[in-house]
Write a structure and sequence with these properties.
This protein has about 450 residues and is of the alpha/beta class. The chain has 3 domains: about 240 residues, HUPs (Rossmann fold); about 100 residues, no CATH class; about 60 residues, no CATH class. The protein is about 40% helix and about 15% strand. The chain has 16 helices and 15 strands. The chain has a 4-stranded parallel sheet with strand order 4-3-9-10, sandwiched between helices. It has a 4-stranded antiparallel sheet with strand order 5-6-7-8. A 3-stranded mixed sheet has the order 12-11-13. A hairpin with a 4-residue loop joins strand 1 and strand 2. Helix 9 packs across helix 10, helix 11 packs antiparallel against helix 12 and helix 12 packs antiparallel against helix 13. The protein is elongated, with a radius of gyration of 26 Å. It binds zinc ion.
């Protein structure tokens, strides 16, 4: 059996992965808050966890892995959107959630086993909060319920910081009803114009952190294998999830392995609205980048390193994928995944090494193994390849061949050079060799620009 190693943020080291139950490997990823299109950075841990899901399914069996990715459909950012748009909350969250699922599917991600929405688990959250109060880990104050951080002596175990450091480093809201500045909200009151549910503490809504504790418990049980998210969630979100779950179920460990991915940059800069380099997955898809190309670029950087999205990388990814797709067009993924690729992915999701090996397999011309091995990374699947077949450039390639013939005979290269320059400005990579010509569209390819040629 393939041995899997994963870097566990909780232990700050890479360790051998041994599932609690090999008949049911369980993983949980914190999903999106649905009020707007997913930005490109949101896709990173989804792709990372998708590769993890594919790895676990291959190693333990496809029916023996349970993957939960939640949807946060109750949050103050959503409430603000309701106010500013005048739209119904459910209309906003339904629409945004469906956009999200569509966008993640276009990037070649498999559907998780469960995609629970927070609003479907309000009863479970209320139950857990009441239990935390009963056990002395939470208290009610002015319609709020707060978690008492001092009641859990392992608080800070994930981020490795002391409570004092966290107070100093975090912008903690010091509300008068808090016994301690680090205490965080489990339940808060809702004014009549805001969505709310009835509870023993009055009409209100849950704080953010409790939903993941309640949903993971409901779908995966008190202890499960892997929990993940962006490293920006490590504190306070994941730290708070651990505190809630371990205090509610003191005999359990909650998640055994914690995995966190680094953030995304664009052309070397942090993605932000003020820098004008903020874009969504949909923006890129609409610009003509295929989901598979975007995925390829993501996989070319290890999840634990900051990832830089650049146009040059996308152009290069598209060239390689076109070549691989051409090679594997009539291949069947009948062969086994290459052991080298499998071992690379099993080594803390080393997708970078796995891609190097895919290149080597392609260089050997082993198209069946290329297709089979790429599937472990979610690449070269039959359902994702339409983009590569979309444009038939044979007409333009023939035109260029003819122009070359004529030029060679007449020794007048003006027309040929003109044709080449139009192709290049339309975004085509022009490759001419003794055996023929090949036109390879780059990410910025605009077929409309070829219409100028008579
Ligand atoms: Zn979460």
């Amino acid at each position: 059996m393939t041995i899997i190693h994963l870097r566990n943020s909780l232990k700050r080291k890479k360790e051998r992965f041994i599932p609690l139950d090999p008949e049911n490997v369980r993983m949980y990823l914190c999903g999106p808050t649905v009020y707007d299109r997913a930005h490109l950075g949101n896709a990173r841990n989804v792709i990372m966890f998708d590769v993890l899901f594919r790895l676990m399914r291959r190693v333990y069996g496809s029916s023996k892995v349970t993957y939960v990715r939640n949807i946060t459909d109750i949050d103050d950012k959503i409430n603000q959107r309701v106010k500013s748009s005048g739209r119904d909350i459910r209309a906003i969250t339904d629409e945004t959630a469906s956009w999200y699922l569509e966008d993640m599917a276009s990037l070649g991600n498999l559907d998780p086993t469960h995609t629970p929405r927070a609003t479907q688990y309000i009863d479970e959250m209320i139950e857990m909060i009441a239990d935390l109060i009963a056990k002395g880990h939470a208290y009610e104050a002015k319609g709020h319920v707060l978690f008492s951080v001092k009641s859990y002596d392992k608080y800070g175990c994930l981020s490795g910081r002391s409570v004092e450091d966290m107070i100093a480093g975090a912008r903690v809201e010091v509300a008068p009803y808090k016994r301690d500045p680090m205490d965080f909200v489990l339940w808060k009151p809702s004014s009549p114009d805001i969505i709310g549910w009835n509870s023993q503490w009055g009409r209100g809504r849950p704080g953010w952190h409790i939903e993941c504790s309640a949903m993971s418990y409901a779908l995966l049980g008190p202890s499960f294998d892997i929990h993940g998210g962006g490293n920006d969630l490590q504190f306070p979100h994941h730290e708070n999830e651990i505190a809630q779950s371990c205090c509610a179920y003191p005999d359990s460990e909650f998640a055994n392995v914690w995995m966190h991915n680094e953030m995304l940059q664009v052309e070397g800069k942090k993605m932000s609205k003020s820098l004008g380099n903020f874009f969504t997955v949909r923006d890129l898809l609409d610009e003509g980048y295929s989901g598979e190309v975007i995925r390829f670029v993501f996989l070319s950087t290890h999840y634990s390193k900051p990832m830089d999205w650049t146009e040059a990388k996308a152009v290069e990814a598209e060239k390689i994928l076109r070549k691989w797709r051409k090679m594997t067009d009539s291949s069947f993924a009948s062969e086994e995944v290459s052991q080298v690729v499998l071992n690379a992915v099993a080594d803390d999701l080393n997708t970078v090494s796995a891609m190097v090996e895919l290149h080597a397999i392609a260089a050997r011309g082993d198209s069946d193994q290329l297709k089979a091995s790429a599937s472990l990374l979610g690449l070269l699947g039959d359902d994702m390849g339409n983009w590569a077949r979309r444009i038939d450039l044979s007409y333009w390639e023939n035109k260029l061949s003819e122009a070359r013939q004529t030029a060679l005979q007449s020794k007048d290269f003006t027309k040929l050079d003109h044709l080449k320059s139009v192709y290049i400005s339309a975004g085509l990579d022009v490759r001419m060799s003794k055996t023929g010509v090949e036109l390879v569209p780059t990410a910025g390819f605009d077929i409309g620009k070829l219409d100028d040629i008579e």
